[in-house]
Design brief:
The complex is a heterodimer of chains A (282) and B (371). Helices cover 43% and strands 11% of the residues of chain A. Chain A is α/β, with parallel strands linked by helices and 282 residues long. Chain A has two domains: 121 residues, Glutathione S-transferase Yfyf (Class Pi), Chain A, domain 2, CATH 1.20.1050.140; 135 residues, 3-Layer(aba) Sandwich (Rossmann fold). In chain A, the strands form two sheets. In chain A, strands 2-1-3-4 form a four-stranded parallel sheet, sandwiched between helices. In chain A, α1 packs across α11. Chain A is globular and about 55 Å long. Chain B has three domains: 102 residues, Beta-grasp domain (Ubiquitin-like (UB roll), Roll); 131 residues, Fumarate Reductase Iron-sulfur Protein, Chain B, domain 2; 118 residues, no CATH class. Chain B has a five-stranded mixed sheet with strand order 2-1-5-3-4. A two-stranded antiparallel ribbon of chain B has the order 6-7. In chain B, β6 and β7 form a beta hairpin. The chains are: A alpha/beta (282), B alpha+beta (371). The structure holds iron/sulfur cluster (2 copies) and FE2/S2 (inorganic) cluster. FE2/S2 (inorganic) cluster binds next to loops of chain B.
Chain lengths: 282, 371
């Protein structure tokens, strides 16, 4: 049993609180014990950086320090949280002055950023810690006949310093989907386009154009569903898609949901039946 | 000798009806630029591409390889072959610019766009001596603020890869914003020019950037346009340009994270777009699905200390007044009205009960006497 600290961000609480239970159950089946790091806060969503970058570093030094206190590595299951936290870690590890200044403040809470915990995203965690073979073995309900379009999202591939896979030609997502027994489609128009999640509240028209590119492309190649390792890309696909003028109504899945389903967890518990755009495929 | 196949985009608008691809077998040796020079010297002298310095300085040899923007003289052939696992390499001109011939594109448009952002120094006479015989000194500490941006060599890699350029014709381009930002943090530049740059940046798409980080990835010079854009957005808000949705989103993040440790997606549509119905609609949709609605995030353990750290950093950066305290008080009241307890009590209770997140909010309400 591997134990890892789970960073929840905003995507595993509130209306999405049930998602953590799904994660926990899904991870149990591949011998991973995910420990919720309860005292962590929002990573700032790459938006606090607009206000002040040091504030973003401090918030995330605190988040990482909470994992270090437990002596655990940290698993971040959102592309943006991962990018923001990994960037902060790089800044803290390479700039002693910054680290000292922030540690001085963390002291008040009895915390210290040491740089001892590794930061994982789902993709590299599945590849390097769990292994594709183990995933394959946990499958109880192979996704036979499911044509799944693989969509990575940006913040696991760019910038280079924090990328979890080859940024130009990544393969981890395809490998995981293949292990689930799905037929993977990784070449379609819009596969590299941004999901538009982050511009929904800065320039909405941009979001809708991006969705049109990606989901239009997914529809064209005849995929049943698009799967992404990012809960924000997923929200863009499932929720913001309904804001489109002529939504193509392409179903989508956050990767752990479809994994849970393939591991034999039912549609309701896996989260797949909670989508605005129904996942009809069985 | 190991070789690779390049499928090179060919197009001469004066002769060809449409672009086509021509295959060349090249040695896997040196850089992509070496391979192109090999073609030109040995296989086909008609191929047109730009290159000059061969050492990542002039910025002229940027192009696409299998859709990904690369600087030819910086990209080893070996790396390309490894990345694409022996697949043919499709070499194409940059995006978003007119093709002049083959891999040569017309860069006038991005240059014109950049000029609209005043990418030059407008000297402040109180700082810069008007007498040309007097030195205008910049200290090394001052240069820290723009030491990366000055290395931009106008290669347009970022412009080609940019998600915002792809879907907003007016968008000035990552490099253009970095050029502008470079003068925004120059002490010698006059305040009125800084104000103007922000105004022009906003009309040039400052809030359209999707923060994909592709510009950071492709820049051969370590410029970080996406981060400069974040800084410019911060400046815009600070200068009072607060009417744009993006500015309101930022305020939501700054206030809610301070108050609760989290953002609140239920309230974002209302606080950014004034859309009150969205919250009701979402609440209804979630209730129908049998999902518990959290009107406010679960207050994090250690919240009070977290607030201290947050405020301390803002104060140190001279930004403590950016927090909207009346908004924070409103959030506090909202939280205590829901739970019928003050925030400190809730934080403690939430932690005691926090093991399972299912039904947490109603459990807490029950415990604390809320509705
Ligand atoms: S982060 Fe913004 S500026 Fe950079 S490439 Fe993406 S959209 Fe363009
Ligand atoms: S910012 Fe970097 S990628 Fe963009 S034009 Fe300048 S040097 Fe090229
Ligand atoms: S030839 Fe000058 S940058 Fe490549």
């Amino acid at each position: 049993m591997v134990k890892v600290g789970f960073y929840q961000g905003c995507c595993f609480q509130g209306q999405d609180a049930h998602m953590f239970e799904t994660m926990k159950e899904m991870f149990k089946r591949i011998d991973v014990d995910v420990v919720l790091l309860e005292e962590t806060t929002c990573c700032g969503g790459n938006t606090i950086d607009e206000e002040n970058r040091k504030l973003s570093y401090a918030i995330n030094a605190r988040n990482i320090a909470l994992a270090e206190k437990e002596g655990l590595d940290m698993l971040v299951s959102c592309n943006t949280c991962y990018m923001v936290i990994a960037k902060a870690k790089r800044a803290l590890d390479t700039n002693k002055k910054l680290r000292d200044e922030i540690n001085e403040l963390l002291k008040e809470e009895g915390l210290e950023y040491k740089g001892t915990s590794k930061i994982y995203h789902l993709l590299d965690f599945f590849r390097d810690v769990v292994g594709y073979e183990k995933i394959k073995k946990a499958v109880k309900r192979p996704l036979k006949g499911w044509k799944v379009a693989a969509y990575y999202g940006c913040h696991v591939l760019y910038p280079k310093e924090i990328a979890v896979d080859n940024s130009d030609n990544p393969s981890s997502l395809q490998e995981i989907l293949k292990a689930l027994g799905a037929e993977v489609i990784d070449d379609y128009e819009g596969k590299d386009a941004c999901c538009g999640y982050h511009s929904f509240y800065t320039d909405k028209s941009m979001t809708l154009k991006k969705l049109n590119r990606i989901l239009g492309g997914v529809k064209k190649v005849g995929a049943d569903i698009v799967a992404t390792p990012c809960p924000l890309c997923f929200k863009s696909f499932d929720i913001y898609q309904t804001n489109m003028e002529n939504p193509p109504r392409v179903p989508s899945s956050f990767l752990p949901e479809i994994m849970a389903y393939a591991f034999g967890i039912d549609k309701d518990k896996s989260g797949l039946s909670h989508h605005l755009i129904k996942v009809e495929k069985e | 000798m190991e070789t690779a196949v390049l499928q090179v985009f060919r197009y001469d608008p004066e002769k060809d009806q449409a672009p086509y691809y021509k295959e060349y077998e090249v040695p896997v040796e040196g850089t992509l630029l070496n391979a192109l020079l090999y073609i030109k010297d040995n296989l086909d002298p008609t191929l047109a591409f730009r290159a000059f310095c061969r050492s990542e300085v002039c910025g002229s040899c940027s192009m696409k390889v299998n859709g990904k923007t690369k600087l030819a003289c910086k990209t080893p052939m070996k790396e390309l072959v490894e990345t694409w696992k022996g697949k043919p390499l499709r070499i194409e001109p940059l995006n978003h610019m007119k093709v002049i011939k083959d891999l040569v594109v017309d860069i006038d448009k991005p240059i014109e766009k950049m000029k609209t952002l005043i990418p030059w120094l407008v000297p402040d006479p109180r700082v810069v001596p008007t007498d040309p015989m007097h030195e205008s000194i910049i200290y090394p500490e001052e240069m820290e603020a723009y030491k990366d941006q000055i290395h931009c060599m106008l290669c347009f890699s970022c412009y080609s890869a940019c998600e915002a350029v792809a879907d907003n014709e007016r968008y000035r381009g990552p490099f253009a914003f970095s050029k502008a930002y470079r003068f925004q943090v120059d002490r010698r530049d006059i305040e009125t020019a800084k104000e103007k740059r922000i105004r022009y940046a906003i009309s040039g798409g400052l809030w359209s950037c999707v923060q994909c980080q592709k510009c950071l990835y492709v820049c051969p010079k370590g410029v970080k346009p996406a981060e400069d854009i974040q800084n410019l957005r911060g400046q815009a808000v600070k200068k009072g340009f607060t009417d744009k949705p993006g500015a309101k989103k930022l305020k939501h993040f700054v206030d809610w994270i301070y108050a609760t440790g989290q953002i609140n997606r239920l309230y974002l549509p209302e606080e950014v777009y004034g859309n009150k119905e969205a919250r009701e609609k979402l609440t209804k949709a979630y209730t129908e699905m049998g999902v518990e609605v959290w009107e406010v995030p679960k207050p994090t353990k250690g919240l009070m200390k977290f607030r201290d750290i947050y405020l301390e950093i803002l104060s140190k950066e001279d930004k403590a007044l950016d927090l909207d305290y009346s908004h924070v008080r409103k959030i506090d009241k909202m939280v205590s009205d829901i739970f019928k307890a003050d925030i400190c009590t809730i934080v403690d209770k939430a932690h005691e009960e926090g093991r399972s997140s299912r039904g947490l909010i109603s459990k807490l309400k029950g415990l604390l006497g809320g509705q």
